[in-house]
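Budget justification aside, the reviewers requested a transparent look at the raw inputs and outputs of the sequence design task funded under Objective 1. We therefore reproduce one unedited record. The lines immediately below are the structure tokens for a 244-residue chain.
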């Protein structure tokens, strides 16, 4: 069984739960496995393309990121938490002013103030906070890393990253963000991905590191890897990568 399938299906203590108010269940968009939210442009991308630097069609062509497992794995890990209702947004000429409204009977956005993030390179764009309507429960010893959806940035806003010890904090985790598009008037639709929630065991912080130069064994291992890649372009994808 794949690790994250086990985590969400509830084998032993490996369960993540998303909870909402009873009246909202089945009404608002639900968090989903991020592997179910792969963007359409990626799905339609061809795995091979003609190398523009070479004459003629070429027998092999060049691989696109469609054949890059690390790119796909980054998009697939964890769960995507969506915006739960439509929000109407209007910004001014430099996005330093932001007006918003919604019909949903619960709060969707709150304001932060600039001094709270003084020095942040995103200023003068005002910091806002998307209100999350999903409580998250994880087993003891687990935290949740919240990041902007990996490899699929929203063209208008970006949530800030944060790591929360959700095993001991039974409270809504909201998502500070910067809205970046000037002179924009439109609707952020319900279901828009806000963040990618990635459960992480806190014992990862106990991992030690060291820094050193290659030794002979490292040189031999590196040389073999380079040779394998020269023999088979998709060596990592076909012989090393573990399907998640």
């Amino acid at each position: 069984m794949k690790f994250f399938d086990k985590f969400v299906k509830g084998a032993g203590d490996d369960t993540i739960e998303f909870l909402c108010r009873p009246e909202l269940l089945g009404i608002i968009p639900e968090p989903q496995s991020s592997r179910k939210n792969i963007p359409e442009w990626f799905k339609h991308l061809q795995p091979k393309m003609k190398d523009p630097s070479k004459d003629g069609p070429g027998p092999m062509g060049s691989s696109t990121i469609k054949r890059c497992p690390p790119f796909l794995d980054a998009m697939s890990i964890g769960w995507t938490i969506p915006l739960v209702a439509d929000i109407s947004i209007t910004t001014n000429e430099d996005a330093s002013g932001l007006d918003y409204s919604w019909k949903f009977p619960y709060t969707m956005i709150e304001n932060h103030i600039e001094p709270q993030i003084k020095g942040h390179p995103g200023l003068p764009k005002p910091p806002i906070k998307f209100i999350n309507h999903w409580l998250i429960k994880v087993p003891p010893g687990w935290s949740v890393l919240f990041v902007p959806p990996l490899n699929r940035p929203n063209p208008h806003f970006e949530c800030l990253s944060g790591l929360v010890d959700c095993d001991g904090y039974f409270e809504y985790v909201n998502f500070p963000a910067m809205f970046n598009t000037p002179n924009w008037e439109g609707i952020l639709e319900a279901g828009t991905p806000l963040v990618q929630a990635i459960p992480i065991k806190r014992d990862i912080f106990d991992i030690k590191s060291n820094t050193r130069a290659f030794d002979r064994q490292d040189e031999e291992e590196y040389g073999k890897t380079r040779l394998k890649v020269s023999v088979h372009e998709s060596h990592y994808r076909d012989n090393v990568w573990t399907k998640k």
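Residues 3-206 form a domain with the Deoxyuridine 5'-Triphosphate Nucleotidohydrolase; Chain A fold (CATH 2.70.40.10). The chain has one domain: 3-206. Computational costs for records of this kind are itemized in the attached budget.
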